[in-house]
Amino acid sequence: MHCPHCQHNNSRVIDSRPTEDGRCIRRRRECENCGFRFTTFERYEETTLLVIKKDGNREAFNRQKILNGIIRSAEKRPISMEKINQVVEEIDNQVRGLGESEVTSQVIGEFVMNALKDLDEIAYIRFASVYRQFKDMDDFMNELQDVMHRDRSHKRK
């Protein structure tokens, strides 16, 4: 590892610990040449995951798009950023857990919808209205009735 201060290529690890999410290792290093201390992160190399869009185009999987969609759906709702990030992490794990090199945007959308159903009904309806491209009030009302029916069944248990 090159020192960011003097560019010398020998450093020693002073301290190692996993990050909060456990997906990488944080290492404190010290340059053997100048003594400069710096931090590096070591993570496993993820294989490229492609998303097959509705129009058949393919693009690299981008968890930021999931995060942005959930943030938009949860706008002005009592959902912490910590909880949103946790949901995005769970969805990322679900998608990668499929073990495929390509996944459809529909599969990802369903993972998001399932997560939002349990997180916040309003955020779920907002996301569903865009994701399912409601064409009229009937589509919206049908989805809303499904949510209300599901909510009543959960309260009875």
Automatic annotation (TrEMBL):
Binds 1 zinc ion. GO terms for biological process: negative regulation of DNA-templated transcription. Keywords: ATP-binding, DNA-binding, Metal-binding, Nucleotide-binding, Repressor, Transcription, Transcription regulation, Zinc, Zinc-finger. PROSITE patterns: ATP_CONE. Residues 49-139 form the ATP-cone domain. PANTHER family: TRANSCRIPTIONAL REPRESSOR NRDR. Belongs to the NrdR family. Negatively regulates transcription of bacterial ribonucleotide reductase nrd genes and operons by binding to NrdR-boxes. This is Transcriptional repressor NrdR. It comes from Paucilactobacillus wasatchensis. The lineage of its organism: Bacteria, Bacillati, Bacillota, Bacilli, Lactobacillales. The gene is nrdR.
